[in-house]
Protein 1
Amino acid sequence: MTPSGIVTLVTDFGLSDTYVGEMHAVLLARNPGITVIDVSHGVPFGSLDSTLYLTERAWPAFPPGTVHLVVVDPGVGGDRRLVAIASEGNFYIGPDTGVLSSGLPDALRPRDAIRTVALLAAVTAVEISNSTFRREPVSSTFHGRDLIAPVGAALAASTPIAETGAFIAAVRAAPPLHATLNDGQGTGRIMHIDSFGNAITNFRTADASPTFLIEVGDAGAATSVKSYTSGPPDHPVALGGSGGYIEIAWPRGNAADRLGLHAGTPVRIRPVSARSWPR
């Protein structure tokens, strides 16, 4: 695998502290020639759904050989493993909790719950908690800086993955995000709230009927809109977002605030005729 020279970061650190800068510093000190891309540091603390949504939509845009780091790790300092995975032409490094699942082949993803899955021949993984590339001393509360970043820098410098840790035969994997629909209807959840207050559901746009209603408590949303600024005034709308999932929005407003939505809120979808659109 030829490295692209790019290392990406996804964390729940926010930007008010020095944590992101410290990870950049370690990466560049170990490998000055790389380009570090901040995909997001706004993951809600410990949110698996948001992590998987953001990585699922962002990672495919990067060239082969990219090293992707994830530090969404509420179990830091506990007994969870840290792993580096080589899969489908890229590297993925982070806690072995399912947060790296967007980088795994679909055939490895379980259908219903996070599970430990045996690796396929095309996927290689190592456990890096005792990697020789670690930064000393290793803090028990900042493995992103002291373990994940140094290993990421090494892999981006063409170090074989076998030299970064001990081989393992299985990793933790999370199910696909998308809900299964039957005849255009089904149940799902909100998996991410973006910075504009749009609520991204786990209904894929490609699976939905041409017109439909999304039910969230007493509020409904129809699909007859093509942009965030169209639709009936003072009423929630739904539209296919740029990430491939249906979003609940409020024209010229914040849907999450207006409707009291948050990650995990249950939603239902059903097909309707165009005449059924709320007015």
Note: The radius of gyration is 20 Å.
Protein 2
Amino acid sequence: MTSEKKKELDALCLKFRRSLIEILHDIQTGHPGGSLSVCEILTTLYFDEANITPENAGERSRDKIILCKGHAAPMLYLELAEKGFFPMEEMKTLRQIDSRLQGHPCSKETPGVEASTGPLGAGYPLALGVALADMHDKIDAYTYAILGDGEINEGVVWETCMNASKFQADRLITILDWNGVQLDGTTEEIMPMGDVELKFKAFGYNTIVCDGHDCAALSAAIKTAKSVKGMPSIILARTVKGKGVSFMEGKNTWHGAPVQDEHYETAMKELGGAQ
């Protein structure tokens, strides 16, 4: 990735973080922590690596991004709006009655959303199915699945891993938003997963570890994953829940909490936005 491209993506990430805080403050609901941690992952995919546009949305040859950790929908919607799938102005309707922008992604209602996700574990087997269907039909496309820490507590995730390995799903690229925190506490407090990298290796995955807040590192990891044939790849992206807002960073209490006036002022000051 060129330094110019990295600056462009970093600027987009800052813009998305500011917009997220603005919107969640205005509507007094939503999930800030996981949305902030997945920002660089989604931005690198939508604006650098993945072949997805409003123009090719109906073509099977497009890449597919499935946000399995559906509670991070606010950041997904910001990415889609920036790509032109719907007007950015529509973000003001997030989580409101009759809005297309529900609290968790809905593929039936929202342009650009590939899968309806929310119940943790439900999106990953679907992502594998999409990838295998494309492989079977010799469609030149990748499916990107984004998992969260709480999600890998689910047994269906590991069943999916077994199948991905068996069927050599090298067109499935999984990215774990690896921030070490879930809804009720840290992963160590709630459900210790041990050596996550070794677990995925044991299930037959090619594993890549990178800084999940470095767009250049993410881009390089994705390119490496694409070069590996005959097995699925997972990128273990080390992130910080609530990244960019000091009082949210690493705190499970900001998994889903309203952004009050005092929170808004502090967050926007740190992000360099309007106050």
Note: The beta strands are 64-67, 143-148, 172-178, 181-182, 185-186, 206-211, 233-238.
Protein 3
Amino acid sequence: MESLKIGQVTLPHRAVFGPMAGFTDAPCRRLMAQHGAGYTVSEMVSSRALTYRDHKTVSLLKADPNGAPYGVQIFGEVPEIMGEAAARIEEYPFDFLDINMGCPAPKIVSGGAGSKLMLDPDLCGRIVEQVKKNTSRPVTVKIRKGWDAEHVTAVECARACEEAGAAAIAVHARTREQMYTPGIDLEIIARVKEAVRVPVFGNGDVRSAEDAVEMVRQTGCDGVMIARAALGDPWLFERVNAALEGRPAPAGPNLQARMNALRRQVEEMVELKGEYVAMPQARAQAIHYMKGLRGAANLRRVCCELQYLTDIDRLIEAVFEEQRRAGEAGDAGEVPFP
């Protein structure tokens, strides 16, 4: 399969890791890259905060080389401020600059940013134009199907962004009104793919290798963007890449490997941010590692009690104890990570 490029950036794989506020920090991105994410993207950062050089916002951009191209995602609704923000971060090490036009969060759309931009394709184009003018890196955008059923504007927004210089477009195949349910509309991804010449990534409901293959088959998209489904399961990228590249499915991780990954991720979070900041965030990350395990409901409660790094060892002990007890009770069935 021919390599996929975003501008001058060559991707190692076609399954990429989408940004999620509160989750896709540097340790999380590194973990996904190690398991085959074609690229990773920072948590979204405010263009206004960047122009003010807000220390907390700038800290979200920190990245060490992790084996995959790395993009910084910014959001805002004023083209000139977005351009200024791009200029301010030009000194930082990253490979491409991504513009958020898809976030459905009320606090983002109430200011006119995120998916609110889907109501104004012309504004989308002007934002890309200003960002492109102020960065030496490729510029990408993440859009939605549209704002609501009456404003399905993905094709118009994608065309405006491409004409303004966007090098790739990711399409979350739901409107803002739909948020994250119901199922995605594969047809809108196909329509965007037909409308532009730059690479298009389909996004939404890719939870398995089969989902990824089917999305590519039905839409013709160049790659798939995976986000929440990879939390706690970075091996999903290995499975998806193998399926997309025509290779045999890789062996899955055993339970010890899964717990090792959890512990390493939380250790890196604490090292990066300190225990006080990292551990509340680690609770949400840890919950995703409980997917499919026996006694998951009880284990999620233990996750919610994490306060110190040493508590991770207590959680891991509880995980193994729950699986052992389920086995003794004859209720183990298929332990998902044997």
Note: The CA atoms of residues 30 and 66 lie 5 Å apart.
